[in-house]
Amino acid sequence: MCVYFFWGSTYVAIRFAIETMPPFWMAGIRFLIAGSALYLFRRWRGDRAPAGREWASAALLGAMLLVCGNGAVVWAEQYVPSGITSLLIATTPLWLTIISSLLTRKLPGFGSLAAVLLGFGGILLLINPWQQDGSIHLPGALAINTSAMLWAVAPLIARRLPRSSSPLLETSMEMLAGGAGLTILATLNGDWARVDLAAISLRSLGGMAYLIIFGSLVGFSAYSFLLTAAPPPVVATYAYVNPMVAIAVGALLAGEVITPRVLAAAIVIVSSVVLINLGEHKKTQVVPDPAEIEQAGRAE
Prior knowledge:
Layout: H1 2-17, H2 23-44, H3 52-76, H4 82-89, H5 92-104, H6 110-127, H7 138-158, H8 167-188, H9 191-194, H10 202-229, H11 232-236, H12 238-254, H13 260-283, H14 290-293
């Protein structure tokens, strides 16, 4: 329940946080705080100090997942509703299937290929690029899809990198590296000049606190526990439950409109992800290592 609700509700928390905070500045501070807390906790619990090469790996993954991946999401949510953002991020398994096929130079099976085509049909239905009323911010949608692609590529790269023996310590390192990178990006983007501490609303502060505590710390820790306590097919269900939670929470708390087109696209996209996940479980029965996903990024 923690993974379903907390991760699914982080998208509306991002929307609230960036209402009165510059997006990159907010994300940088968020991951520096969450990463520092988790790092100190894991070191207190006895995890060994990371080697330099492990920090280098964490910096690369933090740059991909958080600076570029989460950075794209927080920027895009200035223009794209949180529920639609969650649906576009849910396409990560589709991109993973495509990228894996390109790397192995092997076409996916018929079922996976049909699921990918179904999923991208859902994206077109959701974005509706032929529509002229500007209902979906196309640059924002493109940024979110780029984020989904990066989250698909990162686990493939992570397998070839030196890793910490503690997944949670590694996650904290990625958050620290990503938070530092986002803070630099905020500086280059001029976010610091736009920070008005007196103008930051309680709703924005609440959104940021929610992201730090429930998105990054509680939600991700619950996910790590599930990996050892629940069957892989059960754990994988978060990938298609989160968008439904995000859409519902966005409608209830942020007044986001659920149109018939958005609902139809949600059904199509989530169905395609379910089909891909089922196919992958039959082939490998393996769930990705939590340090390869960081959803702090999606925890988001």
